[in-house]
Amino acid sequence: MSNKEGNKRALLWGLYTRSQRADHKELLVESFMDDHLYQYMANAEGKPEKARPLLQAFMDIEERIMIATGQLVSLIDIETQQTLGGFTVVHSDNIKQRNKLLNSFTNTWPYYRAYLTPAHRHMWHRYSVNMSANAWIEEMHSTVMGNEPHLYVIMIATRKGMEGRGIGSDMMRGLCELADSMGIAVYLEATHAELLHFYGKFGFVVAPGCDRTILDLEDAPMFIGCVRQAIGIRQAK
């Protein structure tokens, strides 16, 4: 795939080297520090850096879980080898195992440690919310998709400062091509309503009853479940 300037890009499905995984993880941390959901979960609204410990702990967990049950995927510039964007995705066959690992990790190291030191005291106020959020997200996802085979996109992000260059579109096209080659649906969650138009270009619609605040709390940010229906098996390009 190429962008408007003709630079070649490629998706790396499965990051096997330590440096690839580290770059992918740091990209996600930097991209999501400005996300109001993670700022809320860290009790750090308007102070992105205060959300970093929570995000780093979550990304540590996500890396371990994806290596075991899913895939870490990066979009790179072939010439410079720079990581431009990344996402994590798991097949529905592996979701029960993912949730089991997630519940295990979020109650132990490294996620729990983010609440233990005085430097992170501001996060204690949201500890109970964080511990309940995973189960709430899992229930919403399960209600929408049931037993239908699908790909579940956990996180997707473009490198900070490189928005508007078609990076997100390249990742979504690759993801949709994979789903079409398997003849299955795709499920993802958005925390910004303005992203719904972008996802809509690739066939995603908001699932009924999934335009809600996290844990249905009045002061919490939105958490929106979106589905792209299976459209039959296509030959992957």
From TrEMBL:
PANTHER family: GNAT FAMILY ACETYLTRANSFERASE, N-ACETYLTRANSFERASE DOMAIN-CONTAINING PROTEIN. This is Acetyltransferase (GNAT) family. GO terms for molecular function: acyltransferase activity, transferring groups other than amino-acyl groups. Residues 95-227 form the N-acetyltransferase domain. Coiled coil: none annotated. InterPro entries: Acyl_CoA_acyltransferase, GNAT_dom, Trichothecene_AcTrans. It comes from Carpediemonas membranifera.
